[in-house]
Please model this.
Amino acid sequence: MAPRTLDTLPPRTADAGAPGPDQLRDLYRMLSNVRQLDTAAVAWQRQGLIPGYAPMLGQEAAQVGAGAVVDTTRDFVFPTYREMGVAYTLGVNMVEYMSTHKAIWHGGLYDPAVTHFAPFQAVVGGSVLHAVGWAHGQTLNGASTVGLGVALAFLGDGASSQGDVHEAMNFAAILTAPVVFFVQNNGWAISVPTEQQVAGGSVAARAAGYGMPAVRVDGNDVLAVLDATRRAAAHARAGLGPVVVEAMTYRRGPHSTSDDPGRYRTLDDEKIDGGEDPLSRFRAVLLERGVADAAFFAEADAQAQTRADEIRDGVAALTSRPGSEMFDFVFQESTPTLGAQERQWKEESEHV
Amino acid sequence: MSEVLEGVRKTAPTPLVQLSMQQAINRALGEILERDDRALIFGEDVGVLGGVFRVTDGLQQRFGANRVFDTPLAESGILGTAIGLAMAGFHPIPEVQFDGFAYPAVNQIITQLARMNYRSRGRLPMPVTLRVPSFGGIRAPEHHGESLESLFAHVPGLKVVSPSNPQQAYRLLKHAASMPDPVIFMEPKARYWNKAAVDLTDDQGSVSLEGSVIARPGNHATLIAWGAMVSRCLQVAELAAEDGIELEVLDLRWLKPIDEAGLAASVSRTRRAIVVHEGPRTNGLGAEVAALVSQSCFDTLRAPVERVTGFDVPYPSGDLEDEYIPNIDRILFGVQRVLEYRRG
Model:
């Protein structure tokens, strides 16, 4: 599916230039890391290491391209449950990230306050409003000399149907909040295709109604995503308000390891609609520009495999959290009622 | 948890001001904004207008439109934005204009606000105080008079409180806003305009801001209530006293967590309990109160815990609300039932 062009983001002269050879190679390394880990995680589920996983096969370019823009010293990412590639790119500890898929802890074990990657969560569109509130907080704090911290809200074509996403875009535009709404339009919300999900055919097109600029970008082209997100973040950082980036991509795998795409699409559909694999596309670009060769790719892919193996070892070694943590984190200041329930649980539990 | 009778503390005279609850809350909000520069007030019409109940009157003029601001008309947006502001280190005090319009925000309240601290393992606390003008009694249109306490009290991660008079509203709101956890602050709108003496100092003496308070001591039975039902129960106690029946009125105040010790202490003395609330009976908070009382006072109880409540019907139109909200007669019938109960 060739993305229709849409770009209403005003040009900015101060934007960073095109990535140099080192950054191009780093981008490939990250794409490969993400691909290997994603593929591995599906295997872990089949092997019984984790109960479930939501693959992001095919969305590597969209996630790595967007994640590469984030400045974790001042920006904040608001993900859903399929942003493994963003987390990886931000440097989130991937064992701690994967702990949520091992059913160790809902939000994962990583520290959102340190990583600036909000807790993993399942309500699509639920965190988009949080991004707006956080971003308005940056406005209230006042811009530093280097501009505002930017909130990156991740959502998909399915989430765009949620009322909260409308409220978020409207609030953000009214408040001139520094938010980038990063939409991964991957063609499918579980079994429902975009045509039955997004009236008008484009989430980015809706931005005009809020008076927001938008960019619709080929989400399988990591450089196009990087450029669009960078421009969007610069716009928000300068205090000019929110932007929608719609990365047109394709969910090449199932919705989750429990899903059976054969019930709603054929392998031929996947081949035609999915287009060329984002990693092979980027390999071709690097070869063409002469910044990488076959040996580099072999080495990068081998390293990615090693890292995936290391993460697997970490995930395998993860042990259950003590049951007392069920009670510990309900409140900052617990209550007598909850304390009594915990005492009873301890008395009647074998785990003490 | 306090056994201390409000207003009987004999210390140096304190400046008492006659304030309505609406004015008392306004004073409290002003002080909160003054003392805590991370505190923010926002919601529908809270800025220039000062809120439809004028509770935020003058605050935007005093503190500016960065601290007190109007939002678009979207309750989920208000709560979701509050969560993000809390993540950014602010102390939001959002307002939902009427109880029935908290429903559109319930998803954000339950799936996000109540769980963010838990989900983040304590790393993203939610010091959010949500003000909700609550309960009935003002002849309002549909959805302007609902009792949501059992809904919110059922949700892990929320604390719920409802003041019954201007003094408590003033102190409990300041206390709630200083807490590091989400608090649903249910303001009994039927009591907004009733004036009473308010001590505006921070010295609350031995009256705790946690738990319940005994609004009137008695020894024949305990009336357990919160919000606007407390003053109604006090009226009932007044009437009953004329017949020589001394009713204790326990103002529960905190609906989550419920002051189990205070509840047990009162009922174990009076040995009879009537819980009074506006919300529908089935799965209402009265059921929880009755269960707690039967657990803690089973040996001393002389009668089953009586519930005098709203009915399992949608909150009726204003013309019928006096038939729905527990009135003096219905509460007296409840009292009579526990006093006349004989084991079969």
In short: The two ends of chain A are 57 Å apart (CA to CA). Chain A has two domains: 6-321, 323-352. The mean pLDDT of chain A is 95.
